[in-house]
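Re-run with default settings, no changes from the original entry. Doing this only to confirm the output is reproducible before filing.
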Amino acid sequence: MMSWRDRMQGLPPEQRILIEGGSLSQRFSKRPLSLTHPALIGGFYGFLVSIALLLPFGYENGWNQDTMRDQAFLSVLLMLIVAITGHFSLIIAQILKRPPISLRRGLVYPMPFIGLSVLSVMLVTGLESEMSENTATWVAYIGWALLLSPGPVYVHLSWAPRWRLLCRLEEGLDPFEGDMPSKPEIDDSEGAEDSDMEMAIEDIEEDPPLLHVADSEE
């Protein structure tokens, strides 16, 4: 049984580039499609975010049983929210059938680190107490937005549409529209007749028949 990688070789170069995507998408596509569902990718991003927040949360609240329980609840909540968002993105991609969009690395990749830095400063230092309540709330919202948005945005714009295309390839369908056209099989007898015809044409071109003989040549 052919995999989507084998079927992709028959596509035009621009379509192959669109399906393969960047380095991050290529890493995900190396895994089985059942393990890279957009909901699972979203949940994995939520898990990474919860791991990153473990240190500042533990430092602020102390390393006790209550902190670990709250951190576990936050981790499950984040994973569930981002996973649901990823599954919703796949539904939208199946309805709209839009192609994947490559994101700018220089803009998207630093966002989680900036958001984590903002939240860490707010949690670890006493800067929050020096701000007004409204300002501190907005700074926290900005930190959470920067930390959480890159994963769902990537899944929604890039991976969910690309995963849909890969699944269509895996099923033997044209990733962009309808069934993949199969190459027509040529019958052996027809191939032999064509070969004989080509040889006859080549012989005529090499030794053209004499249609007229001049009197001087008799």
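Residues 158 and 208 are 62 Å apart (CA to CA). Residues 188-212 form one domain.
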